[in-house]
Amino acid sequence: MTAAARPTVTFDGTLEGRLDGRFASELGELAIPWQAEEAPDPRLVVLNEPLAAELGLDPGYLRGPDGTRLLIGNLVPGGATPVAQAYAGHQFGGFAPRLGDGRALLLGEITDAAGRLRDVHLKGSGRTPFARGGDGQAVVGPMLREYIVSEAMHAMGIPTTRSLAVTVTGRRVLRDSLLPGAVLTRVASSHLRVGSFQYARATGDINLLRRLADHAITRHHPDAAEAGHPYLALFQAVVAAQASLVSRWMLVGFVHGVMNTDNMTISGETIDYGPCAFLDTFDPGTVYSSIDEAGRYSYRNQPVMAEWNLTRLAESLLPLLHEDEEQAVAIAQESLAGFRRQYSAAWSAGMRAKLGLQEKLDDEVTSPLVDELLSILQAGQADHTSFFRSLGAAARGHTESARSLLQDPAAFDAWAGRWSALAPDADAMDRVNPVYIPRNHLVEEALASATEGDLDPLTRLLDAVGSPYAERPGLERYASAAPEDFGAYRTFCGT
Hey, where are the domains in the chain? Predict the structure, then answer.
């Protein structure tokens, strides 16, 4: 059917009768029917109205009492069966065979206005059978962090889960102190993870593993169904999606912070923004997460850890790749080798774009230029985002801004002469180098204020990062590096 002939889809603005429990019905072994805990006094903090419109939901309804209860799972639409999803995972290298949604629920899948199937999912909705001694709660700060960063990533065009709403529950939750409890309502193309396949494989039920793979193919990589070896094609598609995704993280200086296998999606979307942050000064060894003491998930290690996670996916899929294990391993290894090639190609193309260089330029010209620049940035302790944005001005002949970001600009001057000779496209650079990102000091400011009930800093930050490439008057502080007294930054999972 052509786009012109596609029938108009109309919705009543609610979720009544629209949630399709496809995951729960097709993969019941990976789903436990469950209900969200009742919230004593739910109040909406922030609502993503454009995303609501994409889903065919009425923002007015969602802001009302029934809509607010729906957003935290206390009002279950007709036909819906909320479930806690089962999955396993390697957490900081150690395998846990049974993790699952300890404080989360999948309300179900919804077909949006564009005909795409998307999950509606809750985080912080209370204890489930997977809670493992946790309280099942979330607090408002970390839920707003996910809202801010996921929407910023979306605005930059990086595949990501989306945030529909954050709602406070009226319950106080004990962390280091008593904090306002909250629920994040999240939207994703699905919540299938590498850990989902690890769980299925660990059961020893090959039929379950096959059904999960078929579900993933249908949901995310339908072209694999037409391949001569659909399950190999599925694996190759996930490898390609993750190579592209992680390269884009690296290009904007994003540090996920907790790249466990249960936090890597089959779709290639970024998921679970816990101790995440963006680079301030460029240092490949940067670690923000307070629990990552060994630097396993440092900025520079992200491509390595993505490959490590994909190796775990390959191990889970071995029975579907070939009945002979040795041959299955050989098949998996050959496909896994493609990750480095694809990541390298995506990274190189992205860096050429950031530098405004033509795609046709030979890698022998561009690679040394990129390597030298990164060394200059690290030695000069330059602000990552500000520097790359300032290169647009440098390409127009105004180098003062870029030079001022470096402790010793002499090395930059020599580099810039060779770069300028390649005729960089300044306008193209401005389209890929953001002005505004969720700078760590501004995120902390917004979260602290919101926790105290002041939403103005949150609203202003969301406005800035919602249009990251267009420089706007009055938003200078959102494009500025952290003040010197901000100090060393550490992030926390919030669990």
Answer: 22-190, 195-348
